[in-house]
Amino acid sequence: MTRGLVYYSTKSQILSSDDVDQLIDDAEKRNQTMNITGFLTMNENHFVQYIEGAGVHLASLMSSIRKDERHNVVAEFSYDIQEKVCSKWSMKLINDRSIGAIQFPDLMISLLKIQKSEAFKREEV
Fold first, then answer.
1. Rounded to whole angstroms, how far apart are CA atoms 80 and 118?
2. CA dist., res. 90 & res. 46, Å (int)
3. Beta strand residue intervals within 14-120, DSSP E
4. Residues 75-111: b if buried by 16+ CB within 10 A, e if exposed
5. Cα dist. 23→33, 68, 83, 122 in Å?
6. C-alpha triplet 16, 20, 23: angle, nearest 5°
7. Cα(57)–Cα(76) distance, rounded to whole angstroms?
8. H helices of 35-99, where?
C-alpha cells in the first residue's frame, strides 16, 4: 500500500543555502533508491515535508529523519493514498527561489488531493 506522510519539525541549527542544497541532493538520491517522492519547504525556524511511497520505506526513512540532528520532529502523521501526487519529484525544495519554476496549478491540485484523501488519518507509519 502506498502511504503519504507529513511531518513538521523545528530547526536545531542554522543552515546555509549550500547546506540546504546538499540536503536536497542527498534526499533526492536516497529517495530514488526507495521510490519515495515528495517535497520539502521551510522557513527560518521550521521544516515541513511531505513524502509518499511504500509504508516500509517511509518507516525506514522516518527513522533516519528523526535521528537527524539538524532538526527535531514535532509532529507527523501518515495515511493511505490511492496514487502519488508528487510522482515527478524524488524530492523538491519549495521556496521563494523555486516557486516560479514549479507548475503552480499542478502543485495546488496535488496539495488538494492530499487534503481531500478520505484516508487522511493521524497515525504512525
1. 9
2. 21
3. 37-42, 46-54, 71-80, 92-94
4. ebebbebeebbbeebbbbbbeeeeeeebeeeebeebe
5. 16, 11, 26, 27
6. 135
7. 16
8. 55-67
**Residue 79: pLDDT band with limits 50, 70, 90:** confident
- Reported pTM: 0.77
φ and ψ of 91, to 5 deg: -165, 125
Nine cell digits for residue 1: 500500500
Is a pLDDT exceeding 60 seen at residue 84? yes
Is the Cβ–Cβ distance between 27 and 17 less than 8 Å? no
What are the grid coordinates assigned to 47, written together?
Answer: 521544516
> Which of 74, 4, 14, 80 is closest to 39 using CA atoms?
4
- What does the pLDDT look like over 25-59, one tens digit per residue? 999 999 999 999 999 888 888 888 999 999 999 99
**Residue 42 to residue 39: CA distance in whole angstroms:** 10
- Going by the DSSP 8-state scheme, the letter that residue 96 receives in this structure is T
